[in-house]
Write a structure and sequence with these properties.
- Its EC number is 3.6.4.13.
- One of its GO terms (biological process) is mRNA processing.
- This is RNA helicase.
- GO terms for molecular function: ATP binding; double-stranded RNA binding; hydrolase activity; RNA helicase activity.
- It is built from 28 helices and 21 strands.
- The protein has 725 residues and is α/β, with parallel strands linked by helices.
- The chain folds into three domains: 213 residues, P-loop containing nucleotide triphosphate hydrolases (Rossmann fold, 3-Layer(aba) Sandwich); 176 residues, P-loop containing nucleotide triphosphate hydrolases (Rossmann fold, 3-Layer(aba) Sandwich); 158 residues, Four Helix Bundle (Hemerythrin (Met), subunit A).
- It has an eight-stranded mixed β-sheet with strand order 4-3-5-2-6-7-1-8, sandwiched between helices. A six-stranded parallel β-sheet has the order 9-16-13-10-12-11, sandwiched between helices.
- Helix 6 packs across helix 7, helix 17 packs across helix 19 and helix 23 packs across helix 24.
- The longest helix is centred in the first third of the chain and has 23 residues.
- The N terminus is likely disordered.
- The structure holds one DNA strand of 9 nucleotides.
Length: 725
DNA sequence: GAGCACTGC
């Protein structure tokens, strides 16, 4: 993160008035400032992309859609928006939007660019991500997450404030990127076709209602855009898709043979080594390779890609055992690990340089492929596997399985050795195996539950989901399954139209549709206050954190919160306890101090503070959403019956009954499942339950469970259970 | 009596 050390300069530049008298200190700062500006200017000029500025601007002028293929280190993400701004693309007050798949990228790049422009972050250059908006009316270069731009499209279907939209890292093929590209294709087409009286301002937002109610009349989706907005004038929209080289062809074809230009990267050469034969045990092979590098190669840190926490922990033990057998002079090898579930303080350890004379070996999951860049890597060890989530629409079940990487993933991994100098990558499989790998990882949209995507598209006026121009179409079965689910939830009518008001309200909420529905029902059951907490807590990673060595302590801590009714009320107890703690402690305390105290409280209670913080943010956001919708926010107080009935009414699709052996039968799918041992109901095993999650690992486990009365199901979801029985 | 890659609104 290059801009961290320069935080002070931003404030200074922001408050500096030309012509004001400067103190000596300020004059010094001014000198520093100029020196820094000079340095930034030189850095910008030395980027490979700087030499093609004119050509790029010309290509954007000539083509409405441009694919830019840029390798790592080309500077495309930071420079191209500045080129376009300087070339006058924002002259009429329009904005250049750049989307990123990850929040952290949107923030760090925006910071860097605002520094390069010598402006305060949030003025000309800004970013917008969920829970954090650093933009203003003067923002012209706006970095954001792709999911956020999709949300913006719900409020402004023409994305009228943008003159250019750049979709960065398109090759990652996240669900959001894929949906966004389909949508942008429609928006661009519609904007280039509209002729109008020009009476209304371009920046004026279309209101939610009109955006939501675009309906099929006789034409396709593009037709409905036109009809609803035919009295407005929009300037044409320029689209730029930025991608890694292997995948550029796909995008070019998708956009009707769009022009693709290549931008040189600045990557050092990486020598690739393969094994002669397939290895039987890749963990063992990794271990041997690590020591071969350590004992036989020059200085430089080693990055090893593993599939999960368990592998990382076991290989770490093995390395340290084997080190002890080596002569003392060869023992200077330090292991550090990084994976998403690791608390942030521990994650930071991978960035610290190894002590003098030591070599660092970083054991990482694929978090180190794209999400974090670790300096000092010269060697990469790649066993060629990754843990991937798959989704089976017919069973409504997800599972996590270890699968071979794709070719582009292998390239991405080896590239991590060539950031600062020439490097080496050791692939622990034969070259013939590499040739057999898939070119790219299967796009996420083909392996996830589509309910949310479909609800969003419906809200954007796309009626014919099966006919939507996806870059790669999900299976017909997956689409139908999700349509059915949305009809069962009441979001869509039997004709597949967005229902009013339920479907419209559900589409506004940034939640899994089943949770959005639970909120709407809760306002009728007079327990919305409780349900807001519930869905916020269910929307984050696991709240309880139990380190292996303190399992008993963690269990005791969890008991203080647990409710005999189940996990949902247990989660509410945790949330309310954190509220009470904050209210008591933060009397007269600042916000930052309150957060610090809360982190300590979490640690004492074996709660993952990152998850709780996230849940509190979501709670705040959805509370705002339901207030805006005018839903009745009431609490059921000490009487938990209406709340539990509301859970049954909301999650009836996930009801299960106990079988004689103590396993459960899920009523909707007929699958035999087991209660996950982390549930507070693991030992009690009530007769009838609802659950929120079904995951296949060693067994089919259900998680987040509450006891219900079977009769509630036929009473509260008769449309579903009457036919079943 | 289990054990969970990574994102995002």
């Amino acid at each position: 993160m290059p801009s961290m050390a320069q935080g002070g300069f931003r404030n200074f530049t922001g408050s500096q008035k030309p012509g004001s008298k400067l103190s000596n200190e300020n004059q010094n700062r001014q000198t520093d400032f100029s020196a820094r500006r000079q340095k930034i200017l030189q850095q910008r000029k030395s980027l490979p992309i700087a030499s093609v500025e004119k050509r790029l601007v010309e290509e954007v002028r000539k083509h409405d859609i441009l694919i830019i293929v840029g390798e790592t280190g080309s500077g495309k993400t930071t420079q191209i928006p500045q080129f376009l701004f300087d070339a006058g693309f924002c002259h009429d007050g329009k904005v250049i939007g750049i989307t990123q798949p990850r929040r952290v990228a949107a923030v760090t790049v925006a910071k860097r660019v605002s520094e390069e422009c010598g402006v305060e972050l949030g003025q000309k250059v800004g970013y917008s991500i969920r829970f954090d908006d650093a933009t203003s009316s003067s923002t012209r270069i706006k970095y954001m997450t792709d999911g956020l731009l999709l949300r913006e499209a719900l409020l402004d279907p023409f994305l009228s404030k943008y003159c250019v939209i750049i979709v960065d890292e398109a090759h990652e093929r996240t669900v959001h990127t894929d949906v966004l590209m389909g949508l942008l294709k429609n928006v661009q087409h519609a904007r280039s076709n509209i002729v109008s009286d020009g009476q209304r301002s371009n920046s004026e937002n279309t209101n939610v209602k009109s955006g939501m109610s675009l309906e099929k009349e006789n034409g396709g989706q593009r037709g409905s855009f036109l009809r609803k907005h035919n009295n407005r004038k929009y300037a044409p929209l320029k689209l730029i898709i930025m991608s890694a080289s292997l995948d550029a062809q796909v995008f070019s074809e998708y956009f009707g043979g769009a022009k693709a230009v290549h931008v040189q990267g600045r990557q050092f050469p990486v020598d690739i080594f393969y094994t002669r034969h397939s290895v039987a045990d890749y963990l063992d092979a990794s271990l041997i390779t690590i020591f071969q590098i350590h004992l036989g190669e020059g200085p430089g840190d080693i990055l090893v890609f593993l599939t999960g926490q368990e592998e990382i922990e076991s290989i770490e033990r093995l390395i340290n055992e084997r080190l002890k057998q080596l002569p003392e002079s060869s023992q200077k090898l330090l292991t550090v690990s990084i994976f998403a579930a690791l608390p942030s303080e521990q994650q930071m350890r991978v960035f610290a340089p190894a002590p003098s004379g030591f070599r660092k070996v970083i054991l990482a999951t694929n978090i180190a492929e794209t999400s974090v860049t670790i300096p000092g890597i010269k060697y990469v060890v790649d066993p060629g596997f990754v843990k991937a989530r798959t989704y089976d629409p017919s069973k409504g079940m997800e599972s996590l399985v270890v699968v071979p990487t794709s070719k582009s993933q292998a390239l991405q991994r080896s590239g991590r050795a060539g950031r600062e100098g020439a490097g080496k990558c050791f692939r622990l499989y034969p070259e013939s195996e590499f040739e057999k790998l898939e070119d790219s990882t299967k796009p996420e949209i083909k392996r996830c539950n589509l309910s949310n995507v479909i609800l969003q598209l419906k809200a954007l006026g796309v009626d014919d989901i099966l006919g939507f121009d996806f870059i790669e179409k999900p299976s017909r079965e997956a689409i139908i399954k999700s349509l059915e689910q949305l009809i069962l939830l009441g979001a869509l009518t039997d004709n597949g139209e967005l229902s009013d008001p339920v479907g419209i309200q559900m589409a506004q909420l940034p939640l899994d549709p089943i949770y959005s529905k639970a909120l709407i029902l809760a306002s009728q059951f007079n327990c919305l206050e409780e349900m807001l907490i519930t869905v916020a807590m269910l929307s984050v990673e696991s709240i309880f954190y139990a380190p292996r060595d303190k399992l008993e302590e963690a269990r005791t801590a969890m008991k203080c919160f647990s409710s005999p009714e189940g996990d949902h009320l247990t989660l509410i107890n945790v949330y309310r306890a954190s509220n009470e703690f904050l209210e008591k402690r933060s009397m007269g305390m600042g916000n930052a101090k309150g957060e610090k105290a809360l982190r300590k409280w979490c640690k004492e209670n074996f709660i993952n503070s990152r998850s709780l913080k996230h849940a509190r943010d979501i709670h705040k956001q959805i509370l705002g959403n339901v207030e805006q919708m005018g839903l009745q926010i009431a609490s059921c107080g000490d009487d938990m019956l209406p709340y539990c009935r509301c859970l049954a009414a909301s999650f009836f699709l996930n009801a299960a009954v106990k079988q004689p052996e103590g396993t459960y039968r899920a009523l909707a799918s007929g699958q035999v499942v087991q209660i996950h041992p982390s549930s507070v109901l693991f030992q009690q095993r009530p007769e009838c339950i609802i659950f929120n999650e079904l995951v296949q690992t060693n067994n089919k486990y259900i998680r987040n469970i509450t006891r219900i009365n079977y009769l509630w199901l036929t009473e509260l979801a008769p449309q579903y259970f009457a036919v079943q029985n």
